[in-house]
Amino acid sequence: MKIQVNTDAHIAGHAARVEGVTRAVEHALARFAEAITRVEVHLSDENSGKSGKNDQRCVLEARLQGRSPVAVTEHADSQGQALHGATDKMVRLLEHTLGRAHDHRAHTPDLPADGVEPVQH
Are 41 and 8 in contact (CB under 8 A)? Predict the structure, then answer.
């Protein structure tokens, strides 16, 4: 899973910020890493540096193997809150999109991939 962090002109995109955002996204989406090829993170300040409520925005777009990309947006008072809210939304969206059947089969070794119990004679 590759992660690309983009910031607008009003947010300093220095290496420490990019590294922190990358670690947070990797941690939040780790269980979906095999299904995700790339995640794009877009951080922006919608009030151009002026303080205001919910003026920080985080958009996460996940590119999935064999599926259409999915995206979420979160507005908050700080970039950290926006990132946290967006990762929470993305986890819920991926759970819904990818389903839990894959996880269930992985934790139930005796259950065949089609979910049908074998008939014993």
Answer: no
Per the structure, the complete domain to which residue 9 belongs is given by 2-102
Give how many domains the chain has, as a whole number.
1
The strand pairing partners of 73, in sequence order, are 59
Q: How far apart are CA 69 and CA 50, in angstroms?
A: 32
Q: What pTM was computed for the model?
A: 0.76
Alpha carbon distance 47, 66 (integer Å): 37
Q: What is the DSSP string of 68-118?
A: --EEEEEEESSHHHHHHHHHHHHHHHHHHHH-SHHHHHHH-TTS-TT-PPP
Under 8 Å between Cβ of 101 and 74? no
CATH number for the domain harbouring residue 90? 3.30.160.100
24 part of a folded domain:
yes
At 47 the pLDDT is 77
Residue 12, domain member (yes or no): yes
What percent of the chain is predicted at pLDDT more than 70?
77
